Structure formats: structure tokens, C-alpha cells
């Protein structure tokens, strides 16, 4: 074919052109897998850019990001002109004069390299091609990657081809924008927008000339010219960029002389480049969205989603403050209780031998550690006990210490932790999520991931079963010893529950009174009467998903459940008998705000409205019944506008777990407190029961919420029933005089019956709920409700205290106990 061309130079030129075209086709088609992948037309039109997803509170405040490359793109008109000018002056002075490849610059670059001044000839478009399509990674290299010089030449050639494709499809402004959105700036900051926020804590259109020069200067080597790690080199490089801008007349000499003298001044933003979830909430959202992402083909870490959670930033802040405040007190109390004693004890109070050593064996690195030291005991002990500098968590802030590995394990083993969640059951929106003390030190989430014995917070499901069986809140049981036989497999077991103080009053109590005082013996009798299988069934119906062992003790909280499950289940009572599947995310949009998905909570009617309302009335017994276990809440400013609170304390065996479940007219909140290892716990009820560990967090939280009108959460009574209440439920309990504070069960040293006006007549009549509510709203905040469980005989003989005096007395007692 070429022999027909008589002119030899033309013939050879034609052969070169032909071979060049063949080579281009071979590269583009990846002939015989030699050259690797090359971007096609679709890739050029729709470049795949790894974008960070942003997660927000429900009120629009940014929580954080998910990313592989921390990047938030901007448009060209959002980029300050000084950045564009600095980039062109430094990286590609002939940017507006070439079509992607600048052969004049390549030629001068080759000459400079030969003379010893190494200078690249790549244009901005070529650099964009390399960054955007990763032309030099393994996927793009093919089999020629094993031939050193050839692979470099081919990669460079592919960059040229890609650069031409980009110039053919995009304007110069588009190329500049894409380049600045893709380049890395160190500290896991990708793109000019993220870099401006990271280094100067400002938007990219607000940067000053010297800041623009600094950012552009970093592009030559982000590590070498990092202003945080190498401020002097970064300053020198900034001034070189300013000199280039002067050379190509982007700034005048006066501006140059003024700017070059300015010192390096950083203002690091909050976006510091961490990508480990950074908080319990961000991690919880990621897990909540995992299934949705898989089903819909989204990558949370690359697709630039905007995720709007249901979490209220104010409520979250107040919850975290309440946790911080009380856990600090609680940890000090725990340390004082044990002093120099070892707190890891069995149920008999004996120290567990080799506790720290056994925990060491569970650590993932310990097996390899022993293997490296050839299992030499002396060497192992030496390194484990060798002090070294480290930072540890304290409630007063991070602390620098010299701890050995054994010291560190011992220190953290004694640390109490917590989990807290708040739900609006009407909408199904989760409003608060506090997974623990501090995510940087304790990754384990105590809202949904952790499951612990629920203690007495599980008792309401037994009383629910009683109502479902036809009983009413006024039906009575006697507080007396109980002995229940049951089958466990092929064996016959006997269960004899005790009250918290190991005493029985032998007094008849209504269901509401017994639940309000958390009486174990009566709860056991109810469970026996309705059947423990029924209790388990109703707990599952209300929202408990964990496997529950169906045994008589199930009602006393012998099974492990999560805070999430308990809050969800309690929400059924407030939500008129509808179980809700809570949502943590409300909606998801793309980067431009276009709606991708909107989430709605699913509601399922599992209880009648009458039963649900009666259960709310029962829960109020914790505050209103004599000796109710929620009455410690009187310490906080929660009782304006006829406010009503229902709740249940809970404490597992040996004071391992402390719980409080609180219900208001708007929200349901669950709080758990305890050590991560169940062998570590308080010694007695005065320090370790739920009313002293978990309840104060709820009290402090709600006090803060009520005091801020911007939350939209106000005090007030529970809603009136929407249906006719056919059960008898008003049955005032006799006022009791005791010489101790109320506890999580019937901890009463002495009882004295006080007469009430016509109790029998009130117990048996059918009552109109409308009338009952009006009466309660008028009288619910009066002092006798509080005094029923906490007034001493001496006080009863004195002149009656005013409401203000009684609340002051309560506060003083609580503060003394906390100290």
C-alpha cells in the first residue's frame, strides 16, 4: 500500500502516521490487555468523582461527613479569582493558549531537565486527567506495567489523549473547576473548598491573596509544603507563587511587596480530616443506612449524599450535657465507694482472681504479642508493666499520664459508661442518641449495640399482661413471700423472689401502687397468674426484638435488652397502643438538593387505646403513688403547667445496671448506666440503684429541655383519652410514713396506715375520665403526693411544710447523697 507513494519522505511520513493511528487504537481498545483501561466518552461526560456525604441534624446543622476522600465540590463562580490566577501563574502559564497538551512547555521542560533544572511540562488539563481517571494506577496500566520505561511513556501518552478529550468536551473554566475540586491538599482534604475550610475556616470565595498563594503552593508537594507540619517551607513556597503571579502580571509590585511580608496565619476549622465516624451518632446513621445503600446502589463514602437525620441539635446538646454532668459525679462516687479495693467481684462479693489477665487474653493483639515474645513470661510481664506516656479519658478532659498496659486496662475497667435515647413515638423520629462517654475512647454503642439486664424497667410488661387479661389498675395483690415452681427443660426449678430490702409488708396493694413502688413479690404473683409466656409475647409485640427466656423472672428484667428496644417499646404506650419502627434519617438529597429518598416511620396497632392510656396512668404512679420510685425527680424544675411524668426505674442484680425510662406528653427517654464489664458495679442501693445512677440524667436533661422554649417541648399533662375508659382505675393508696427514702422496690422499714376519705367508695365506682383528669390537674402537684413515700414520722408531727420548703428539703437530701 505504501509502495504506491513514490516520494520516500512522504511514504515514510505516511507509515509513521499510520502506525501512530494503529497505536492510538490499540491503546484506546487495550489491545491484548497491554495498555490498561482508558476513559471512554461516557467517562469524560460523566466523570466519577469521589464525593463526601454530609450528615445533618434535623434543624440543618452539620454533624459531619462520610468520605474516602474528604471533598465538597464548588462551582467556578464560588472560587475566588486569586486562586485561579495563582494556579495558572504557577502550574500552567499558557493554559488559555493550548488544547490540553503544551508542546512548547514540554520542549522547554526537556531542556531545563538536561541543564539540571527539573521542571515538569504537564498542563493543568493533563494533571486533571491523571487525577480524575487515575491513569497511572494498576488498572490503567495493563501488561506493559512490568516494563519500566515503556509504562511511563504509555501512561504519559494516555494522559495526552485524555487531556484532548477533556478540552474537546469542557470549557477552560470547567477544567479549572474540576481540577481544583479533585486535587489533594493534605490532611485528607480534597478539593479547594475543603482545603479553605480546613486551613482557614472560611468559604473558598472569602480567601485572601496570601491564603490563595499558600493553597496553590501546596500542590507541588502537599506533605513538604504542609503549613501545619512545615510552616517555614510552606511560607517560602507561598512567596514563590506570589512571585509567579507578579511575573505574569496578575498582581502589581506594590501588592507583591506588601503580601510577601505577611506572616503565615492559619485558622484551622473543625473539619480536621477524621474519617472514623467521629461520634456514636454518625456511626449509628451509617449503620442505619447500610441496607438502604446496598438496595439502591449508593456508596455513602463516595456519592456526595446529603443526609438529614431526625436528631434535634438542641435536645442532643442537652442530653450530652446532662450525661457529662452526672457521669462526672457518678464516676467520683464509684471511685470513692471502692477506694483502693478491686471492684471486680462475684455475686458473693469475692474478688475475681486474674481479672485483668483474663481481659488481656480477650484483646485482639495479645496472641500475636505473646507469639513475638515466644511466650516468655518474664518478657511479657516486663512489657505489660513498662510505663509509657499516653492520653487517657477523664470527665475533666483528656489527661497525659505515664501508664503501663496493665495500668491502662485497670483504669478503663473501672470506668462507668452510659447509653441514652429519646424518641418522639408519634412521628417515630429519634431525637437524641448518646451512645456512651466518648467515642474517641469507647467505640461500643450503648444505645443499640449493647444489651443489658433491664431490671425493674421490664416490670410494666407484666402489668400490661395483667390489664390484657381483664384486671384493672385498682385490683389488689398482697406483698408476701412467693414460691413459684416451673419447668426448665426436663428439670423442675423453684423461684423465690425477694424484695429489694429483703422484707415483705404483707399489705394489700393496687396494681398501680405496686408498679409505682416496684414491688418484686407482687410482680411475681402477677406473672404467675397471667403466665410468663404472655409477658414475653406482649414485650415482643411492643417492640422488644431480643430473644427473651420465658421464665417467671422475666418480669423482673432477667433478660438482656438494648436501650433502643426499651424506648421503642415504651413508646407504644404513649402512641395510643401503636408500635413504631423508629427512624434515624428523615430524608436524603443529592449534592444539589434534589430529593432522593424520604423516610416515614411505620406504625402498627398492637394494643387497644384504652389499655395504652391505662398504662400511662400506671406509669404516673412512680411519681404519684406512696413511695413511688420516680419521686427523686422532685429535685429538678419539672413541675410547671401541671406537668405529668411517667417513669420506671430499674436495677439489675448486684447493682450492675442502672436504668431509667421516662415518659412525658411528647417524648420517651431511656437511660442506662453501668460498667462495660458486669463484674464491676456499686456495692449497695444507696449508690448503685437506677434512681441514683440513671434517673438524674433524665431529670437534668428534661430540666434543660423545658427551660429552652426553642425546643418546642413544653411541660403539661398527658393527653386525655380518645376512647371511653371502661376500667376502674382511680383508687387512692393509703398514705405511708417511712423512715427511709424510696428505693427501686419495696424498701420500707415501717408502715403506718393513714385514713383517707371514703377509700372503698372510690375504689369500686366507674369513673368518667374527663372528671378524673380535671381533678388530677388541679391537685397533682400538691405536696402530699411527694410526702407519701419520703416523709418521716418526726416531720409528720411538725407543722406542715410548704411546697417550696419540701422541694428544698428534697434537693438538700439528694445533694448530700450525691456527694
Note the overall shape. Answer: elongated
CATH architecture descriptor of the domain at 418-711: 3-Layer(aba) Sandwich
- In percent, how helical is the residue content? 40-55%
| Low-pLDDT regions | 272-277, 745-804, 815-819
What is the CATH superfamily of the domain at 418-711?
Answer: DD-peptidase/beta-lactamase superfamily
How much β-strand is present in the residues?
A: 5-15%
Q: How much is the radius of gyration in Å?
A: 35 Å
Return the CATH class of the domain at 418-711: Alpha Beta
Structural class: alpha+beta
Measured between the Cα atoms of the first and last residue, the distance is 101 Å
* Strands in their spatial order, largest beta sheet: 2-1-5-17-18
Number of strands: 22
- Average of per-residue pLDDT values: 84
The CATH topology of the domain at 418-711 is Beta-lactamase
Supply the number of helical segments: 32
Major sheet size, sense and barrel closure: 5 strands, mixed
Pfam families: Transgly, Transpeptidase
GO molecular function: penicillin binding; peptidoglycan glycosyltransferase activity; serine-type D-Ala-D-Ala carboxypeptidase activity
Region (Disordered): 759-819
Main location: membrane
Amino acid at each position: 500500500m505504501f509502495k504506491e507513494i513514490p516520494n520516500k519522505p512522504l511514504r515514510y511520513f505516511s507509515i509513521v502516521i499510520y502506525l501512530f493511528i494503529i497505536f492510538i487504537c490499540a491503546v484506546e481498545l487495550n489491545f491484548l490487555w497491554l495498555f490498561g483501561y482508558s476513559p471512554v466518552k461516557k467517562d469524560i461526560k460523566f466523570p466519577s468523582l469521589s464525593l463526601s456525604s454530609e450528615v445533618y441534624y434535623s434543624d440543618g446543622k452539620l454533624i459531619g461527613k462520610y468520605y474516602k476522600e474528604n471533598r465538597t465540590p464548588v462551582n467556578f463562580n464560588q472560587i475566588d479569582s486569586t486562586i485561579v490566577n495563582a494556579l495558572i501563574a504557577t502550574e500552567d502559564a499558557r493554559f488559555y493558549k493550548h488544547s490540553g497538551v503544551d508542546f512548547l512547555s514540554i520542549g522547554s521542560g526537556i531542556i531545563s531537565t538536561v541543564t539540571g533544572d527539573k521542571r515538569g511540562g504537564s498542563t493543568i488539563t493533563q494533571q486533571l486527567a491523571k487525577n480524575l481517571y487515575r491513569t497511572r494506577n494498576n488498572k490503567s496500566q495493563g501488561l506493559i506495567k512490568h516494563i519500566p520505561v515503556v509504562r511511563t511513556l504509555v501512561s504519559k501518552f494516555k494522559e495526552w489523549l485524555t487531556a484532548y478529550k477533556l478540552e474537546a468536551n469542557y470549557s477552560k473554566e470547567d477544567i479549572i473547576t474540576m481540577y481544583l475540586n479533585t486535587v489533594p491538599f493534605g490532611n485528607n482534604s480534597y478539593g479547594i473548598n475543603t482545603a479553605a475550610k480546613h486551613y482557614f475556616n472560611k468559604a473558598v470565595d472569602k480567601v485572601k491573596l496570601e491564603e490563595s498563594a499558600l493553597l496553590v503552593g501546596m500542590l507541588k508537594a502537599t506533605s513538604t509544603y504542609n503549613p501545619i507540619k512545615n510552616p517555614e517551607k510552606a511560607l517560602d513556597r507561598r512567596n514563590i507563587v506570589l512571585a509567579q503571579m507578579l511575573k505574569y502580571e496578575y498582581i502589581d509590585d506594590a501588592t507583591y511587596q506588601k503580601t510577601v511580608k505577611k506572616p503565615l496565619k492559619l485558622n484551622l476549622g473543625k473539619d480536621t480530616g477524621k474519617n472514623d465516624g467521629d461520634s456514636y451518632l454518625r456511626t449509628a446513621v451509617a449503620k442505619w443506612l447500610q441496607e438502604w445503600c446496598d438496595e439502591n446502589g449508593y456508596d455513602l463514602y463516595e456519592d456526595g449524599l446529603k443526609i438529614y437525620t431526625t436528631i434535634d441539635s438542641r435536645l442532643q446538646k442537652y442530653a450530652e450535657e446532662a450525661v457529662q454532668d452526672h457521669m462526672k459525679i457518678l464516676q467520683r462516687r464509684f471511685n470513692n465507694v471502692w477506694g483502693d479495693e478491686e471492684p471486680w467481684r462475684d455475686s458473693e462479693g469475692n474478688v475475681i482472681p486474674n481479672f485483668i489477665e483474663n481481659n488481656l487474653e480477650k484483646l485482639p493483639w495479645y496472641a500475636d504479642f505473646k507469639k513475638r515474645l515466644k511466650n516468655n513470661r518474664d518478657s511479657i510481664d516486663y512489657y505489660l508493666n513498662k510505663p509509657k506516656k499516653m492520653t487517657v479519658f477523664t470527665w475533666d478532659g483528656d489527661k497525659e499520664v505515664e501508664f503501663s498496659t496493665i495500668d491502662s486496662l485497670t483504669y478503663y475497667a473501672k470506668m462507668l459508661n452510659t447509653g441514652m435515647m429519646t424518641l418522639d413515638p408519634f412521628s417515630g423520629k429519634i431525637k437524641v442518641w448518646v451512645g456512651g462517654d466518648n467515642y474517641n475512647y469507647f467505640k461500643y454503642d450503648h444505645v443499640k449495640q449493647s444489651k443489658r439486664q433491664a431490671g425493674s424497667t421490664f416490670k410494666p410488661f407484666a402489668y400490661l399482661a395483667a390489664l390484657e387479661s381483664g384486671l384493672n389498675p385498682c385490683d389488689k395483690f398482697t406483698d408476701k413471700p412467693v414460691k413459684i415452681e416451673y419447668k426448665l427443660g426436663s428439670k423442675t426449678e423453684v423461684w423465690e423472689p425477694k424484695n429489694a430490702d429483703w422484707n415483705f409488708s404483707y399489705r394489700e396493694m393496687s396494681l398501680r401502687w405496686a408498679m409505682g413502688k416496684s414491688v418484686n413479690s407482687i410482680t411475681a404473683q402477677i406473672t404467675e397468674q397471667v403466665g410468663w409466656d404472655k409477658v414475653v409475647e406482649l414485650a415482643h409485640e411492643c417492640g422488644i426484638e431480643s430473644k427473651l427466656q420465658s421464665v417467671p423472672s422475666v418480669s423482673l428484667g432477667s433478660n438482656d435488652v438494648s436501650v433502643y428496644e426499651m424506648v421503642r417499646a415504651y413508646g407504644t404506650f404513649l402512641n395510643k397502643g401503636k408500635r413504631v419502627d423508629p427512624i434515624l434519617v428523615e430524608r436524603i438529597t443529592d449534592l444539589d438538593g434534589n430529593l432522593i429518598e424520604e423516610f416515614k416511620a411505620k406504625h402498627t396497632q398492637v394494643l387497644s387505646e384504652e389499655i395504652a392510656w391505662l398504662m400511662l396512668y400506671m406509669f404516673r404512679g412512680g411519681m404519684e403513688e406512696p413511695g413511688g420510685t420516680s419521686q427523686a425527680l422532685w429535685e429538678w424544675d419539672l413541675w410547671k403547667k401541671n406537668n405529668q411524668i411517667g417513669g420506671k426505674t430499674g436495677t439489675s442484680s448486684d447493682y450492675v445496671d442502672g436504668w431509667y425510662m421516662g415518659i412525658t406528653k411528647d417524648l420517651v427517654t431511656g437511660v442506662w448506666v453501668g460498667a462495660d464489664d458486669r463484674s464491676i458495679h456499686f456495692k449497695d442501693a444507696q449508690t448503685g440503684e437506677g434512681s441514683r445512677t440513671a434517673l438524674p440524667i433524665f431529670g437534668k436533661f428534661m430540666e434543660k429541655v423545658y427551660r429552652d422554649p426553642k425546643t418546642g417541648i413544653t411541660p403539661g399533662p398527658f393527653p386525655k383519652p380518645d376512647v371511653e375508659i371502661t376500667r376502674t382505675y382511680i383508687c387512692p393508696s393509703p398514705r405511708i410514713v417511712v423512715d427511709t427514702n424510696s428505693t427501686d422496690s419495696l424498701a420500707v422499714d415501717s408502715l403506718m396506715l393513714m385514713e383517707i376519705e371514703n377509700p372503698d367508695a372510690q375504689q369500686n365506682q366507674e369513673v368518667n375520665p374527663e372528671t378524673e383528669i380535671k381533678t388530677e390537674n388541679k391537685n397533682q402537684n400538691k405536696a402530699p403526693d411527694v410526702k407519701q413515700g419520703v416523709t418521716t414520722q418526726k416531720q409528720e408531727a411538725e407543722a406542715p411544710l410548704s411546697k417550696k420548703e419540701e422541694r428544698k428539703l428534697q434537693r438538700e437530701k439528694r445533694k448530700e447523697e450525691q456527694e
